[in-house]
Write a structure and sequence with these properties.
The structure holds two protein chains of two kinds. Chain A has three domains: about 100 residues, no CATH class; about 60 residues; about 110 residues, 2-Layer Sandwich (Alpha-Beta Plaits), CATH 3.30.70.1880. Chain A is an alpha+beta fold. In chain A, helix 2 runs parallel beside helix 5, helix 8 crosses helix 9 and helix 8 packs antiparallel against helix 10. In chain A, the strands form two sheets. A five-stranded antiparallel sheet of chain A has the order 3-2-7-1-8. A three-stranded antiparallel sheet of chain A has the order 4-5-6, covered by helices on one side. The two termini of chain A are about 115 Å apart. Chain B is mainly α. In chain B, helix 2 packs antiparallel against helix 3. Classes of the chains: A alpha+beta, B mainly alpha. Chains A and B meet through helix 1, helix 4 and helix 6 of A and helix 1, helix 2, helix 3 and helix 4 of B. Chain A: InterPro entries: DUF881.
């Protein structure tokens, strides 16, 4: 094998000499000659043919007998060298195609130069930093908004609470809670407005938070700061312009014990009414309901300050 | 003729199978291809000069590829892979140019 290789392979002109003589009489031409014309034809069509003819004729004369050997040699020569070259070239073509395809498919970054890659990386880092800043800014504003929301809710709660308190104090909201029911039963003399006013003042002094007064016909009037009491006819009472007939009941929300003590002090409301022949019945109430409402005056002149 | 057919067959095979190049081979494949091209052009030139040698072609083909890959590998290990592969490509390019010039002179006599 190797021998033949070296012989045939040492150069182009030489194989033409030795090989031709060996084998090809006329028929073996296809084997050794088939590759030859193909390989030779491109190089020099004008110069080559005469050379080819000369050795071929020489071969005819010299090796007419050793026909099989020539065929075998041609096969082997053809086989080993050409097959090897073919395999290598197939490999080359394969790799070439693969490489071309690879390069063309991901030419975006893989084919980029180092400076470009560095620049791209730098851009990405700058963008990263910018986006991080954006994130922190947005988180900060989110936190602010959330705390603002919380503050607003707290303020709203506080305002609602104050509005409720003020509404109860101003008599615009119904209220309930522990308290007393104070009933005035007239004796010989009707219950005068002064006694009722005394009782109201006493209750206020004892910490009453909400009061209403109701007459015998279940009409109720909320007692607020501006409520006034007047003596009416036939023992009736005019409260805030509304006539109430006896017996009167003041429903009050506050600390029951304190208010009871306040009413019962010597020379106080109970004693005064008793002097007039009347009677004051004080009852504790677990839940005293002050449901009558006072219609607030619309303010014409007073304006809040600030 | 067979060589050209083999080359075309390889190209078709490569396009048809469409394999992905392993990452480990990625830096060496282009250099190996250029080295093989150098060997092929050298072979064509030798054929035209009528000093073509099968064995020499095979050996030079394989050794070209191996040496090119080895140089690049060495460069990678030394930290100068990029420059060294550029150098290899330049050298092989010069050789290819020389070979192509010789082939051109043969074919066109110019």
């Amino acid at each position: 094998m190797t021998d033949e290789h070296t012989e045939t392979g040492t150069g182009w002109p030489q194989p033409a000499g030795p090989v031709r003589p060996d084998g090809p009489a006329g028929e073996p031409d296809p084997r050794p000659e088939a590759p030859d014309p193909d390989e030779l034809s491109p190089l020099s069509p004008q110069g080559r043919p005469p050379q080819d003819d000369a050795p071929a004729k020489g071969g005819d004369e010299s090796a007419a007998g050793s026909f099989a050997a020539a065929v075998a040699a041609g096969w082997r020569r053809f086989g080993s060298a050409t097959v090897m070259i073919s395999v290598l070239l197939v490999l080359l073509g394969f790799t070439l195609a693969v490489q071309l395809k690879t390069t063309s498919t991901d030419s975006s970054l893989a084919a980029a130069r180092q400076e470009d890659l560095v620049r791209i990386l730098y851009d990405l880092e700058a963008r990263d930093v910018r986006l991080r800043q954006d994130i922190s800014t947005l988180e900060e504003s989110q936190r602010q908004l959330r705390s603002g929301e919380q503050g607003r809710q707290a303020a709203l709660q506080e305002a609602t609470r104050r509005a409720d308190e003020l509404g109860i104090l101003a008599g615009t909201l119904p209220a309930r809670g522990p308290g007393l029911a104070v009933r005035f039963q007239a004796g010989a003399k009707p219950i005068s407005a002064i006694r009722v006013l005394d009782a109201v003042q006493e209750l206020r002094g004892a910490g009453a938070e909400a009061m209403q007064i109701s007459g015998g016909d279940r009409a109720s009037v909320r007692i607020v700061a501006s409520t006034y009491f007047l003596d009416g006819e036939n023992g009736s009472l005019i409260v805030d312009g509304r006539p109430l007939s006896g017996p009167f009941t003041i429903t009050v929300i506050g600390d029951p014990a304190t208010m009871r003590t306040g009413l019962n002090i010597p020379g106080g409301v109970v004693a005064s009414v008793a002097q007039d022949g009347g009677n004051v019945i004080v009852e504790d109430r677990e839940v005293a309901e002050v449901s009558a409402l006072h219609v607030p005056r619309t303010l014409e002149h007073a304006r809040p300050v600030g | 003729m067979i060589a050209v057919l083999a080359l075309l067959a390889g190209v078709v095979l490569g396009l048809w199978l469409d394999p992905t190049v392993p990452a480990a081979l990625q830096p060496y494949l282009p250099i190996a291809v250029v080295a093989a091209l150098d060997a092929v052009f050298g072979g064509v030139r030798a054929k035209l000069d009528r000093i073509f040698d099968d064995k020499q072609f095979v050996v030079s083909f394989i050794s070209n590829v191996l040496v090119a890959a080895l140089i690049v590998y060495l460069g990678d290990q030394l930290g100068v892979g990029g420059q060294l592969s550029t150098g290899v490509v330049v050298v092989l390019g010069v050789r290819i140019f020389g070979n192509v010039a010789a082939i051109r002179r043969h074919l066109f006599r110019a």
